[in-house]
């Protein structure tokens, strides 16, 4: 009962307090202690708000104005330099075009001279053959004239003219027979020589196209140097990192502790990665009976002998290889046999072209610039592709494979310096 009386009294007092006009703020209420921020401001910000910026002196303003004018002059000069470079671009390109035209004009002139020489040779052969045939035709025309004359004489002799009989001399003259001379068969155009010429021209054309294609690739030639620190310990590297061979002498034992060194697979990687652009290099494999040439991500396994450490046997690497005299191309542990004209032959030099942006790597027989195999998402659906582009830096790579039994020759690879 007492509690109910107390609650009623408090409710009445609260209603009286909240009546309109009874709740006002006085100046004394606003002059209380400062409100504390829930997150204190930094001392640096507090110093900025507490300290008003000091006005610049006349000397400071003058120096600042001089700096602005100097910066303006430098900017204008740089802009003029850029505009001048832009204006000179067209002139420079025209000069380069003219220089290229002069080089091609020299080659075209040589081709035109050779073409004219071939035509002149054919015309000379035609004239000589024609002169010989004219002489033979003249002789046969004379023979035909004689035969016709004697035919008329024989017909006249057969007509009855009393008891006179034909003379034996007339009969012998009429019965004479001219046989073709065996030398006539040899009077003809030199077809065999012409066919040989066509074959030579075809070979020259093929070689020229290959050289022109190689010329384009050489513009993207890369300086490939093998990394001794991460290569297998029994791969001896000489010639400024361009010559590799298998050596029975083990390398420094301390180098075998390198975490990125191959310990079981005879593999070697280049020192510099490929991260953009187009690159081309070649590997001379004439003195190696079994090999693999390709590219790989740095994440290729370095320890052990399983597929993760072998070129082409995983998703991290692409290669062509020669094993037991058979050439194949590998990626993700799947392979195909090159289908080119020389695909079944053993190439002496393997060319590798990488277009990093387009996710393309192609292998060529560098002697004839014939495509051995191309790896890309578009052209090789037989290979599993997770990405249409390269997702890591690429490293040029080579691997020595086990040669056929009984092989006693050298086991050596060479990387030519294409920029020399």
From TrEMBL:
Record keywords, A-Z: Coiled coil
Domain B30.2/SPRY: 204-417
InterPro entries referenced in this protein's UniProt entry, alphabetically: B30.2/SPRY, B30.2/SPRY_sf, Butyrophylin_SPRY, ConA-like_dom_sf, SPRY_dom, TRIM/RBCC
One Pfam family of this chain: SPRY
UniProt superkingdom: Eukaryota
Transmembrane segments: none
Coiled coil: 65-117
SUPFAM superfamilies: Concanavalin A-like lectins/glucanases (SSF49899)
Protein name stated in the entry: B30.2/SPRY domain-containing protein
